[in-house]
Predict the 3D structure of the following.
Amino acid sequence: MSAADTEGGVHLTLDALRALARAKLAAVGLALDHAAAVAETMVAGERDGCASHGIYRLLVAANSIAKGVVVPDAVPVVSEPARALVRVDGGGGFAQLAFERGRPLLVDKARAFGIAALALNHVVHFAALWPEVEALASEGLVALAFTPSHAWVAPAGGTKPVFGTNPIAFGWPRPGRDPFVFDFATSAVARGEIELHRRAGKPVPDDWGYDADGQPTTEAEKMLAGAMRTFGGHKGSALAAMVELVAGPLIGDMTSADSIAADGGRGGSPIGGELVIAVDPAGFLGEAVAEHLARAEAMFASIEGQGARLPSSRRYAARARSLAEGVTIPQALYDDIMRIGA
Ligand code: NDP
Ligand code: PYC
């Protein structure tokens, strides 16, 4: 392993990080096809400077395996409930392999019908959604993805958890450039951020959530035991509800409340479904695709032209650095990772 201690952490090439992640996942009993898919999403997060969903997630995934929350050798089963719909029953395994298995058919159907949707059912989800919408946008499709999580988030106006952190991700293809992508939780912050603050012993902003008595707190531990807030007041709250509905009842899967009940106090990652929608711009536009994608580019230029940044631009810059230089893992995290399966 090409790891060398550096000040403040351990430096690794991306290949070394991938090998470490695969080895640790295999060491805790994850089947090799799952381990490869899961490692890839963690390496992508670390590479792109998304610490809350990077290699830290090895600890999270190992915990879900140890607690029996995930089926480590699940075999995803692909079906076609309707002409433009794909379903992958993940069999209780991690979501990454289920997405990989469903993606080719989703792309084919989006091209054939102009729009198609993929439901991942019965999966365990610990990851960011941007790898999925970025992959689809890289194939020329407009993509949306939604997943509930565990009931950790209070609705606007309340202080008791109902929603998950419920991310929404969007990808837009840009000819000759990296896709436009955004992906964020509908909570004030991803729960992973609060967990990283807890690990680092740092206070959290008191507008991220409440303690168990419904009072604002700056203590990460207390907030994790209480309720998080949605972003943007009633607007984030409505979006969080939408995610519950479209990636829960609409696809016959769990809400965040169902998920945390099914976890039964084990502290594993959320169990349930994910909805991915793919739209082929050629469906509406035919031969005029290039003309209209150019109008989108004009909008991006007018955002960047005034010094504002596009979502995903920081991530692509971090990616370029990591590809050239590798990544540095905080020492304490590296030590915890090395203890996995030991
Ligand atoms: P952030 O609040 O950090 O927002 C991330 C998005 O906003 C990115 O697309 C980011 O682009 C963009 N962005 C951030 N700052 C700016 C800015 N100043 N100008 C323009 N764009 C900006 O994300 P969250 O903490 O809410 O979520 C982090 C991750 O957690 C997500 O990837 C999400 O999928 C994941 N998550 C997963 C859950 C699950 O159940 N599986 C649940 C909750 C969250 P850039 O990347 O370039 O900075
Ligand atoms: O950070 O909120 C989060 C999260 C939940 C599931 C995966 N990440």
